[in-house]
Write a structure and sequence with these properties.
alpha/beta, Rossmann fold, seven-stranded parallel sheet, about 40% helix, binds nicotinamide-adenine-dinucleotide
Length: about 260
């Protein structure tokens, strides 16, 4: 799908990889973007910085009402939704047993599942409903969904039970969704990034960041958010890429700890 003048919903668009992608799509590719996020101050600032091709819509991806209203607001402002990039997620520790060897309360795991997996499904589903109304480009494409997973989906570390399993769930959405939505001309792909320095990654202990950096092969450094944005643009533009997960990680593989 050509990106120029297309409308792209970016969840988590107020920060990190989502914001970098929105900026790249507007400035380098001529897209219009709708930033969906719960962080109202950062979202308003980001949209103002990007100019008239961007709007911020406060949306909590765990709520179907909130996302329905946000998709409607996007369509009202820009006339359509052509792509959606699901970056919004939360990070946090989660183990099978706590330090005393007891099973922890379920609430934290359930919250991460709600944001990182149920929320992704919610936005994909509601954007797909809107995309299905588009005239197909070149007779075949009405929309593109990109869901953001993580390298942790493949090699989850100790303490990543919730994060890793929700990110594996995102990969699990690829095939059934791509197969179901193919009839509408909507493609579904995922990106599993390695470590990119964003506010989420900055929550990690500096020693952990150094260790993760040391695990990259080539180039031996953290990812640049523009490299992530470039990968999103490639997925949107390449009409034959469907049902796939791209690992964007300089060949890094997480160790157990
Ligand atoms: N940064 C990395 O190194 C890295 C590595 C692997 C995967 N990822 C994944 O990439 C994506 C982007 O990560 P990031 O580093 O830019 O994170 P970030 O923390 O900088 O941004 C996440 C954004 O999501 C928003 N958000 C959280 N809960 C929300 C909700 N319920 N509804 C709407 N918005 C909500 C936050 O307000 C924030 O603006 C995430 O899915 C993350 O898991 C990041």
């Amino acid at each position: 799908m050509r990106i120029q003048d297309k409308v792209v919903v970016v969840t988590g668009g107020a920060s990190g990889l989502g914001l970098a992608t929105a900026r790249y799509l507007v400035e380098e590719k001529g897209a219009k973007v709708a930033l969906f996020d719960v962080n109202e101050d950062a979202g308003q600032r980001a949209a103002a910085e990007l100019g008239e091709k961007a709007i911020f819509v406060r949306a909590d991806i765990t709520s179907d009402d909130s996302v329905r209203q946000a998709v409607a607001a996007t369509a009202a402002r820009f006339g359509a939704v052509h792509a959606c990039i699901n970056c919004a997620a939360i990070l946090g520790p989660s183990k099978v047993l706590d330090k005393e060897g007891r099973a922890p309360p379920l609430a934290r795991f359930a919250q991460m599942a709600m944001v990182n997996l149920v929320g992704v499904f919610n936005v994909m589903s509601q954007c797909a409903e809107q995309m299905a109304k588009n005239e197909p480009e070149a007779g075949e494409e009405r929309g593109v969904v990109i869901n953001i997973s993580s390298g942790a989906a493949f090699e989850g570390q100790v303490g990543q039970c919730a994060y890793a399993s929700t990110k594996a769930g995102v990969i699990g959405l690829n095939m059934p969704a791509a197969r179901e939505l193919g009839v509408y001309g909507i493609r579904v792909n995922a990106i599993a990034p390695g470590l990119f320095l964003t506010p989420m990654a900055a929550q990690l202990d500096p020693k952990v960041i150094e260790a993760l950096k040391a695990q990259t092969e080539a180039p031996n450094r953290l990812g640049d958010p523009r490299e992530f944005a470039h990968c999103c643009a490639f997925i949107i533009e390449n009409a034959y890429l469907n049902g796939e997960t791209i690992r964007l990680d300089a060949a890094s593989r997480l160790r157990a700890r």
